[in-house]
Amino acid sequence: MVNLGCFLAEINKGLAGFHSLAFKARNYEWDLQNLMLNKKHISTISSAEKRSLVSYFFQQFETNVLPEIPALRKAFIHSDFNEWNVLVDETKVVGLIDFGDMVYSPLINEVATAICYLTYDKDSFFKWATPFLRAYHKENPLQEKEVKLLYYLVATKLCISVCQSAQARVEQPENQYASASEKKAWRALNALLKINPVAAERHFLDALGFGFSCKQSIDVKLEERRKHLSSILSVSYNHPIHMQASAFQYMYDGYGNTFLDAYNNIPHVGHGHPRVVEAGQKQLAKLNTNTRYLYDLLPKYADKLLSKFPKSLDKVFFVNSGSEANDLAIRMAQKHTGNKKIMVLEHGYHGHTQTGIDISDYKFNNPKGQGQKSHILKVDLPGEYHYQEGKISEAGSHYADKAIDALRSNKDGLAAFIAEPIVGCGGQVPLAPGYLKALYPEIRKQGGVCISDEVQTGFGRLGSWFWGFEMHGIVPDIVVLGKPMGNGHPIGAVVTSSDIATSFSNGVEFFSSFGGNPVSCAIGLSVLETIEEEALQEKAKTVGSYYKSLLKTLQKKDSRIGDVRGEGLFLGIALIDESGKPNRALAQFLKNDLRKKHILISTDGPQDSVIKTKPPLVFTQKNALHVVEALAHSLKHFK
After folding, report:
1. Do 497 and 580 fall within a single domain?
2. What's the pTM value of the predicted model, to 2 decimals?
3. Residue 193, Cβ neighbours under 10 Å: how many?
4. Tens of pLDDT along 233-250?
5. Last residue of a domain, one of 207, 241, 258
6. Domain span including residue 199
7. 186-236 confidence digits (pLDDT tens)
8. Pairwise CA distance, residues 140 & 540, whole Å
C-alpha cells in the first residue's frame, strides 16, 4: 500500500506540467465530478432496493460534494488507478498504463478512485485505505477540505461503476466483463453505510495529522439542551446519544459511531430514504400551501391512500400527527353519535393532546396523571399472555364478554370504542383473537362507533396485513394514522365513512393550516410508492418471521424471557424474574447494554419490562441475527 501511495503521488506531481485542452474539455461519465451524468442510468438497475441505495449516495454527493467542487484543486489525473493498470516488478511499482480515462478534475478524485479499487473487495476498509493515503499525503500533501470529502467520493466511484454496469447490461447483455466486479461494488456500498461519513472523516483526518475537530462532551450537550428545554422532555439511555446523521437502518452519532436502529418505527421505509427526500425537496421548491386551494397532489394522495382500505372507508381528513388525528377522531365520533362517553383499553395510548390524554390509560392512570374522567369507560387489556383462566384460546371471548358486560352496564350512551390492534404501551400486546370481532357489533348496538388506532401498526409493518385491524377480521368505522405515514415528516390522518364525514360536516368548519399541504402529500405518496416498489410489507413478513423465530429460540434457552409476541416488525420481548413477575431491572440493563454494542432498542409496558423492537422496514435478516446474538450475550452478563 505504501509503494502504491508513493507511486501515484509521484505520477500526479509529474503530471503537474501537463496541459491539454482536449482533456480539459472532456465531459466524461466516469469522471467523479460528473456523477450526475449517470443519474439517467439508475433506472436500469433491476433491484428497487439497490436503486434506493445508489440514489441515497447521489443525494449525499449533491449535498456534500457538489457545492465544494469549485473550490477544490484541479489537475490532469489518470482517473483509473487499479490493479489492472499498475505494472510491478516483484514488490516494486514500475509503471502505469491505460490513460484512456484521463480527465481534468479535482485532484482528490484520483485518490478516491485509487482507494475505491484498493478496498472494494476487502473486508477491512481502513486497513487498506489508510497506509496508501498516508504514503500519498507524505509525497503529495492533501488539503483538509479534500480529505473531508473522501468518504463521499469513494462512494461516488462505486455508484458510477454500478450504474455503468447496469447500463452495459441493457446495451450489451452478453458482455460479462462489464459486470465482473459489480457484486463487489454493491458489497462495498453497503459497507460504507455501516462505516458512516463521520467515522471516515475522523479516521482520515487523524491519520494525516489534521486532527478531527473536537466535539463537545455529552454532558455539555445535555447542559445546552436543558438551557432552553424542560426536563420533562426525556432522553433515551443512561448515556444519551448525540445523533448527527442516518441512512436506512443506521444512525450515526457525532463521534463516528454507527448504530443499528432496531427501535425507531417512524422512519418506516428507512432513515433518509432518497425517494422520500427527493419528493419533499421538489415539492417544497414548487408549492406549499393549504387545502383551501386546489392542487392535484391532494386528491391524488387521498385516492392512493384510500385504495388501501375497505370500500366503506372512503373519506380522509389530513392533519399533522397521530395525536391530532386521535383528537379529531374522537370529535367526529361524538358529533356523529351525539354521545360523549368513550370506551378505552387498559394501558392504551393515543396521543399528547388533552383529548389524547383523556382516552389514554397509559397517561391518565400514571401516578402523576390526571386520573380517569367520568366520560371514560375503561376495560381490561385482552392479552393472551395475561390470561390465566382456562385455555389461552378462550382469552378473546373471555375479555370480550367482560367488556360487553361493562358496556351494557353503562347508561350514558357511547360515542366510541378506541383501541390499537397491538397495544404498544401495554408491552406490544396483540389483542386476543376474536376479541374485536365479538365486541365491535356490541359497540354499534349501543350507538357507538369503532376506532382503530393504526398510528404504530399501519402501513405494512405487521407483514401479513397492511393494517392492524385486518389481523382481527373486522372493519372499523374510523381509522387513525400517523407516525410512519411521512417517514419522519409530520403527517397524520383520519379515515372514515361517508356517513360519519357527513355528520361531521354539519358542525363547525374543520381546517388545518398544514394538514394535507402539498409537501406532506408528496412525501406521503412517496412512502406508499416505496412500500410497493421495494415490497416492504413482504419484507416485514419474512424478516419479522425470522426475527421472531430467533427470539423464540432464545426464549427456550433463557427462562427470563417470559414471552415473545407481536407480528412482522412489531415485536415485544417480555422479561420476568424467577417468580414470573415483570423484570424491569433486566429490561433496563439489556436496553443500555445493547446501546453500548451500538444497537438501538427500547423498553415499554406497565412495568417498563418489555423490550420493544420496531425497526425500519429495510431491516434485514442479518440485522435481526445481529440483534438477537447481542441480546443473548447481554443476558449472560446480567447480574
Report:
1. no
2. 0.94
3. 18
4. 999 999 999 999 999 999
5. 207
6. 2-207
7. 999 999 999 999 999 999 999 999 977 667 889 899 999 999 999 899 999
8. 50
